[in-house]
Amino acid sequence: MSELYEIVLQQVAKSDLHALLECIEMGSQTLSGLAVSEKFGGIVSAGVNKKLVDAFLAHEGDACLMAHLHEFNVSRSIRLPLVFLRVIKHKDEVDIELSFNDTPPLDIGRIMFAMQRYTDELSKKFHIKEFYGGLEPAADIDTRYFTGNTLGPLG
Fold it and tell me: Which of 83, 96, 90 is nearest to 12 (CA)?
């Protein structure tokens, strides 16, 4: 049975959301299956764009934007076949989650170390309060590979 892994970018600044999502999307060969949990005035989009992000942020209440990232480049030497992207707006905060499994068999320690470097670089370019990664759900501190630049119990 394969394991699920999750990377969380917590409390992303709303002013950075569009640029951050573009940066993440550019790291993949293709984006597919874009879906939103709410209807935003009939906005339909094949990809992440400013109009969709603005409508997502302006929505009164909680919302979720989801998509699949194919051939996602974590680093120059590590590419994941499929990553599930979720953008969650809850209360007045926005989080981004990147989830993937270990199929085909992967060197997960190497991948999580690369993900830590990848998210650290994102946190230097965009306002992200905290980032962490581990077995899903990564909110469980006991199954984290990292929290920020600190290794977790599995790291």
Answer: 96
86-113 pLDDT, tens digit per residue, is: 999 998 899 999 999 976 677 899 999 9
The Cα 146–Cα 97 span in angstroms is: 15
Mean pLDDT of the 53-81 span: 92
DSSP-derived 3-state class of residue 39:
coil
Q: What is the pLDDT of residues 23-66, one digit of tens each?
A: 999 999 999 988 888 776 555 566 788 888 998 898 888 999 99
Cα–Cα distance measured from residue 155 to residue 153, given in angstroms and rounded to the nearest whole number: 6
Residues 57-63: contacts with CB under 8 Å, at least 24 apart:
57/14, 57/17, 57/89, 57/94, 59/89, 62/37, 62/88, 62/89, 62/90, 62/91, 63/36, 63/37, 63/38, 63/88, 63/89
pTM beyond 0.90: the answer is: yes
